[in-house]
């Protein structure tokens, strides 16, 4: 069954040009780009985050997280300087939240005062041209299985592992 | 050739005369930048052209490939079974085959990519300089040895044996065998001297030379090598092991030639490279054009705390991808944490092959498809004067760079894209977290090496499930952890705990990273023993999360000093009181009179008295996704498996449950998580407002900071009055002040202040 699905997707006729429907490119677990409108969107709540030619971070909320909140001191701070917690004068966690649904879209570990990194900067025109030749993907399917030893490729189903967390 | 004054005034004939003279009288055959800076495939030779013209049947070439891969697997097992080095016992080795020109074409299936990747450089050196040198030459039955990373290598603890394979007098290919040997006569025992302040502190410096003639080890040269290290037995035994693995591999290759013909072998070796490179370009073409940027900081030079930036901008345009590492920290000329460019690139290759495209053949064709941009004299492109003994620190970050950059390019791709070869996953823990040791064994023999603890790096979380615990070193997925009992038979070390997963040290996320394990070790029955560690990440987290997941925590070293725990055990009832857990031992301090210390996990070699306890943790992999999306039942399972505390379940994951039955209150959990999402919206600031108050012109004055800040074109180095600013394209190497001198000056100032 899975093999059939794989074959279908490989051999299905591809659209010759961009369809009328809006193509939205899934960029991360929480972000997508609406190609027609050139907008970043939240994948959890569909919130319009901002101009896809600029950093998606510009449309999010940012919080300078105290590292000890997340990486809690496990050793007695009264006794020890090193406790499994990062040094807050050296390391901060910038948390980026969707302003609409509050999902944590990204974390950035950085040095206090360092400019936030513009981490994803795609060429929108090239992206449009690329997706004009592709079928739209509305949901990312679970990932491919890891490569299997020779002779076992077709015995394993493509997506589901039967793992409780899948 | 050097540019000489007055050169322009010479006639063509005079210039040729001068050039010939210079070529014939080269003072020193140092590392050749033309070899060391080039990671592209060598041009096709006439023999390769001929072979490819006549051997076009892919089925035949695949048959040849199968035979060669099988031979590589066999020679790998030989080394693993016979090798004396601890590294050999747990798989820190490789055997490989190269084209006649020296391009890496295939490695043993379970072998270390980085070792084979850097081994092509010394082969190319031998080809270029020794083949036609009347005092050397390259002949059937020769074996060349090498370990200096400036001629190709990761660090000087790895030794390679390389042998040419001839057929009817024609060089057809090269084969090699490499082991992380450990001891190499450096300033600190064990082969990875964090204390090295110059390349002359790094021990053996073998440029590529012949040590085997007519398949026989030259005993005079071997004696010189044995005389230069602390463990002459190891040097001898593993030299023979590597030689015989190469000889077996050569036998198999010659059998392939006998059966299929020389041209079939040559065509396979070359086509393997060209096809692989073409496939990588096809995959890059599937990615979006654009840039993905990522910064990471190493927080120690292993001699002093310092923030050393590794900056990366991965750029895709069409079927080309450039890894731009400009803006990274300057090289530190008297510290061991530098890497030469050849090593840096090959570590990136490892990152790609292990985490992104594991289905590709592991060869130079993959690397050749990428372009690199670096600043000369930087931490990841150091000059030949800089010590590189602990190059692992910056190099491992280039593996991390791959695991952060590629998912952001790949996540969007359709199911049938070839570039989606495996799951998207967060960064694996990226520190060489192990004890390097040295001293006298209980058999009164001098030794120095390192433990297989390094193989317990937690895997990063995946997009559809948690990372594996303590799965492998991040540079070798096939490595095992070895037999501790075997080590304890030989070494005066006792593990009080081993491979006990470190609770609550987690890369949190929707899926969590795999955990690392705790190690608690002491010495017994020796008159001289010591440890060092080469871990960074005690102040700044080293393994990043992905798509909203958190990094691993920060890991210190912990010690219990000035006590003999074996004496304490002998006192009635104490054995039952000992907490086999770092956190409990350090917080409860059950052994009276002892001195309890935590410190930066980068520790230079330190003598240990019997019964003193040293503790480190393997780290966790980074988390994936928003913590509030973690399945509450998965959180309960983490509690059942004692991976996390109740505090973490409640305060990190916001799960409401009965702590006795671990039954989740789904409604209350949803409400708690909604409340946390609302709290995020209250405390988060709009980006522009946030950056206006956050961004500074440079690092805080007292931060020992090295690397670019906002603009990758400007490099900051140092702190306070000693801080300098340089152009990224014109970096001057940095010399760090002696930490002891700084300490003396500080104490003198305090004395002076007190009158």
From TrEMBL, chain A:
Pfam families: Acetone_carb_G (PF08882). Residues 133-166 are annotated as: Disordered. Residues 151-166 have a biased composition (Basic residues). Coiled coil: none annotated. Residues 98-118 form the C2H2-type domain. Residues 136-150 have a biased composition (Basic and acidic residues). PROSITE patterns: ZINC_FINGER_C2H2_1. It comes from the Bacteria. This is Acetone carboxylase subunit gamma.
TrEMBL record, chain B:
GO terms for molecular function: 5-oxoprolinase (ATP-hydrolyzing) activity. Residues 57-626 form the Hydantoinase B/oxoprolinase domain. GO terms for cellular component: cytosol. Pfam families: Hydantoinase_B (PF02538). It comes from the Bacteria. GO terms for biological process: glutathione metabolic process. InterPro entries: Hydantoinase_B, Oxoprolinase-like. This is Acetone carboxylase subunit alpha.
């Amino acid at each position: 069954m899975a093999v059939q699905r794989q074959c279908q997707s490989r051999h299905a006729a591809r659209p010759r040009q961009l369809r009328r429907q809006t193509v939205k490119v899934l960029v991360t677990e929480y972000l997508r780009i609406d190609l027609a409108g050139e907008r970043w969107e939240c994948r959890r709540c569909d919130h319009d985050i901002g101009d896809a030619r600029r950093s998606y971070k510009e449309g999010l909320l940012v919080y300078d997280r105290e590292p000890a909140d997340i990486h809690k001191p496990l050793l007695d701070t009264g006794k020890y300087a090193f406790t499994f917690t990062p040094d807050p004068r050296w390391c901060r966690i910038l948390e980026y939240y969707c302003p609409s649904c509050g999902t944590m879209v990204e974390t950035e570990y950085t040095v206090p005062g360092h400019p936030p990194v513009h981490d994803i900067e795609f060429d929108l025109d090239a992206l449009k041209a690329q997706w004009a030749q592709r079928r739209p993907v509305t949901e990312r399917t679970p990932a491919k299985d890891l490569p299997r030893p020779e002779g076992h490729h077709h015995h394993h189903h493509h997506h589901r592992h039967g793992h409780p967390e899948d | 050739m050097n540019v000489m004054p007055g050169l322009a005034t010479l006639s063509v004939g005079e210039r040729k005369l001068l050039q010939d003279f210079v070529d014939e009288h080269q003072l020193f055959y140092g590392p050749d930048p033309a070899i060391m800076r080039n990671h592209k495939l060598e041009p096709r030779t006439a023999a390769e052209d001929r072979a490819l013209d006549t051997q076009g049947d892919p089925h035949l070439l695949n048959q040849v490939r199968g035979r060669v891969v099988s031979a590589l697997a066999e020679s790998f097992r030989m080394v693993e079974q016979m090798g004396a080095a601890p590294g050999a016992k747990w798989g820190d080795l490789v055997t490989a085959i190269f084209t006649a020109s020296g391009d890496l074409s295939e490695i043993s299936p379970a072998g270390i990519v980085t070792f084979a990747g850097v081994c092509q450089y010394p082969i190319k050196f031998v080809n270029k300089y020794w083949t036609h040198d009347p005092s050397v030459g390259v002949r059937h039955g020769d074996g060349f040895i090498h370990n200096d990373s400036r001629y190709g290598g990761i660090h000087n603890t790895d030794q390679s044996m390389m042998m040419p394979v001839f057929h009817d007098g024609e060089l057809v290919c090269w084969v090699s065998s490499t082991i992380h040997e450990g001891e190499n006569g450096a300033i600190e025992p064990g082969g990875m001297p964090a204390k090295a302040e110059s390349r002359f502190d790094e021990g053996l410096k073998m440029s590529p030379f012949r040590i085997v003639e007519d398949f026989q080890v030259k005993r005079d040269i071997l004696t010189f090598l044995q005389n230069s290290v602390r463990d002459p037995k190891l040097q001898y035994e593993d030299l023979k092991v590597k030689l015989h693995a190469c000889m077996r591999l050569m036998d198999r290759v010659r059998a392939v030639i006998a059966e299929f013909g020389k041209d079939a072998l040559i065509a396979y070796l070359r086509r393997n490279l060209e096809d692989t490179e073409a496939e990588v370009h096809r995959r890059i073409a599937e990615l979006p054009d654009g840039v993905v940027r990522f910064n990471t900081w190493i927080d120690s030079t292993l001699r002093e705390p310092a923030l050393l930036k590794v900056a990366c901008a991965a750029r895709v345009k069409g079927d080309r991808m450039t890894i731009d590492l400009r803006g990274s920290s300057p090289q530190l000329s008297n510290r061991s944490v530098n890497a030469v460019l050849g090593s840096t690139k090959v570590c990136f290759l490892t990152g790609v092959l292990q985490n992104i495209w594991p289905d590709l053949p592991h060869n130079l064709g993959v690397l050749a498809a990428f372009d690199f941009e670096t600043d000369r004299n930087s931490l990841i492109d150091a000059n030949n004067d800089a010590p590189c003994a602990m190059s692992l620190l910056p190099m491992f970050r280039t593996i991390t760079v791959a695991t952060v950059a590629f998912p952001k390019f790949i996540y969007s791709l359709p199911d049938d894209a070839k570039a989606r070869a495996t799951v998207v996953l967060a960064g694996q823990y990226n520190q060489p977290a192990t004890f390097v040791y040295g001293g006298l064994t209980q058999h009164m023999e001098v030794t120095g090496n390192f433990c297989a603890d390094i193989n317990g790096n937690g895997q990063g979380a995946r997009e559809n499930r948690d990372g594996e615990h303590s799965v492998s070193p991040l540079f070798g997925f096939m490595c095992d952890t070895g037999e501790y009992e075997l080590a304890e038979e030989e070494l005066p070390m006792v593990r009080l705990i081993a491979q006990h997963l470190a609770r609550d040290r987690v890369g949190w996320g929707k899926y969590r990273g795999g955990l690392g394990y705790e190690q608690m070790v002491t010495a017994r029955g020796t008159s001289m023993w010591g440890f060092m560690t080469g871990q960074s990440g005690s102040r700044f987290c080293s393994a990043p999360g992905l798509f909203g997941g958190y990094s691993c925590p920060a890991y210190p070293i912990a010690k219990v000093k000035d006590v003999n725990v074996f004496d304490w055990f002998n006192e009635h009832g104490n054995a039952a009181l000992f907490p086999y857990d770092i956190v409990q031992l350090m917080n409860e301090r059950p052994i009276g009179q002892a001195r309890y210390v935590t410190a930066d996990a980068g520790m230079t070699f330190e003598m240990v008295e019997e019964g003193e306890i040293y503790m480190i943790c393997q780290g966790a992999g980074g988390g994936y996704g928003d913590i509030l999306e973690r399945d509450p039942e998965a959180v309960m399972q983490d509690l059942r498996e004692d991976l996390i505390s109740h505090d973490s379940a409640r305060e990190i994951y916001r799960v409401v449950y009965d702590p006795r039955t671990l039954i989740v209150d789904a409604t209350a959990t949803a409400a708690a998580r909604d409340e946390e999402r609302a709290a995020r919206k209250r405390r988060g600031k709009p980006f522009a407002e946030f950056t206006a108050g956050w961004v500074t012109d440079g690092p805080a004055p007292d931060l020992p900071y090295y690397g670019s800040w906002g603009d990758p074109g400007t490099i900051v180095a140092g702190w306070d009055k000693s801080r300098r600013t340089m152009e990224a394209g014109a970096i001057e190497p940095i010399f760090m002040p002696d930490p002891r001198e700084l300490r003396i000056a500080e104490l003198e100032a305090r004395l002076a202040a007190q009158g």
